Amino acid sequence: MQLIDGFGRVHDYIRVSLVDKCNLRCTYCMPQHVRFLPQDHLMNNDELFEIIRIFVEVFGIRKIRFTGGEPLLRKDASSLIERIANLGTQLSITTNGLLLHDFLHLFKQVGLRSLNVSLDTLKEDRFIEITKRSGLSKVMENIRLALSQGFRVKVNVVAIREMNDDEIVDFIRLTEKEELHVRFIEFMPFDGNEWNWDKVLSYREILTMIEKKFAIQKLNDAFNSTGKAYRVLNFRGTFSVISTITEAFCSSCNRIRLTAEGKLRSCLFSRKETDLLGEYRSGGDIRPLIISSIQRKDEKLGGLPEFENEAAVKKVLSERAMVKIGG
Length: 327
Fold this sequence. Notes:
Blueprint: E1 3-4, E2 10-11, E3 13-17, H1 45-59, E4 63-67, H2 77-85, E5 90-95, H3 104-110, E6 114-118, H4 124-131, H5 136-148, E7 152-159, H6 168-173, E8 181-186, H7 203-211, E9 216-218, E10 228-232, E11 238-242, E12 255-258, E13 263-265, E14 274-275, H8 276-281, H9 287-295, H10 310-315
Parallel strand pairs: 3-4, 3-12, 4-5, 5-6, 6-7, 7-8, 8-11
Antiparallel strand pairs: 1-2, 9-10, 10-11, 12-13, 13-14
Helix pairs in contact: 1-2
């Protein structure tokens, strides 16, 4: 059975948050007021596996991305990833890269070959300012290590005006000699992250900055792609821009999200959640809940107003910080 919403979109890709904690403190993702959940509120290993098994075997989910928080902080992450790999789906992960060196062997063993590494600056002092921690050298070392071992590595850069807009070209230069894919992400609004329209560095602005320095070519985008992909001529790697704010891609969305406490979200921006874990723990059948959740999915942006209407957007934001949702 396929998960099809009221607008004919087929959902075959789930992003699963393994934990709601992180070892960095980026304020656009984790505002100061965030409180982490007690362990017994989160899905345990068996619960998470069984819920994911239903998505795969009943609803045909073909791709799973592990997210967090920082997913590699979960104590049983290795055994959980290994179990889920046996379901035979395509696996990927989004991580801040600090612990990546400890998991590359496992990833190779289970066939997880695609890594997204969140990194918003190439400057050590700015890394500390953004994340409230040190560690840039370790992240860069682990990116190089993963590339050397044949992993497909994407670097996710949240582009924010007057935070890191002066580093766009520096990130592009990373793609010159390495088969690395850099993704610039427009700054998105979440609970407590002080988003406003003036901080949004748009897709068109980012592209203009790059075109002033390099000759680029447009690449073909997959139907369900979130990014608009390009390559600098004669560079080995590629780059893209995820234009959620200025040129949304909702019409081809095939993604759903499962939070660390077992809540299903049909959209990153949705204010509606379906408690799968509660139903599962009570012995109920979660399949009808999954179907109804997808069928109720909004056509665009989780029902948010247009982003240009800043006051209206802030008024109806989900009461979740990004770290509590999973990227």
